[in-house]
Amino acid sequence: MTDKQFGEDDPVFPIAVAAELAGMHPQTLRQYDRLGLVVPARTAGRVRRYSTADVNRLREIGELSAAGIGLEGISRVVQLRREVSELRKRVRELESALADDRLARQSGRVFAAGHGEIVALRHGTRVRARTELVRWYPPAVSDDT
Q1: Alpha helix (H) residue ranges in the chain
Q2: Strand, helix or coil at 48?
Q3: Separation CA 113–CA 44 (nearest Å)
């Protein structure tokens, strides 16, 4: 017999077990399913199966409810948390794409600017330092103020 490892999103718990793990009544889980707060997976026979992630969400909802937040507020908090999670995932994807793009462009040209001109340089080339003296004059102060 092989030992199968279950992931956090694998639906393995029937409603009675999930309710006990979350510290709730099974009817409460059915209500949350109807409201869309925690929607479990279903078997071919339409039996609810909860994952570890579902049980963790149920516990969070229980904490929010115990803090006095109503179901509408809980629904909004759950929605916002989901959006934040998706946005964080998107930021990680964009950061990865940006890093890949930077690596791909390292062999490209580099530009240097100075005294009103822009010069293209090869990667790894330094700009030659200028030795002329430039005198700076402070702006004239007017008495109009």
Answers
A1: 15-22, 26-35, 52-66, 71-105
A2: strand
A3: 67
Q: What angle do CA 39, 62, 88 make, to 5 degrees?
A: 60
- The position carrying tokens 């409460």 is 28
Within its chain, how far is the Cα of 58 from the centroid? 21
10-residue mean pLDDT series, the chain (145 residues): 73 93 95 91 92 94 94 91 95 92 66 63 63 64 63
Q: How many residues does the chain have?
A: 145
On whether the CB atoms of residues 49 and 43 are closer than 8 A, the answer is yes
Q: How far apart are CA 54 and CA 59, in angstroms?
A: 9
User: Is there a contact between 19 and 28 (Cβ–Cβ < 8 Å)?
Assistant: yes
Pair 26, 47: CB distance under 8 Å: no
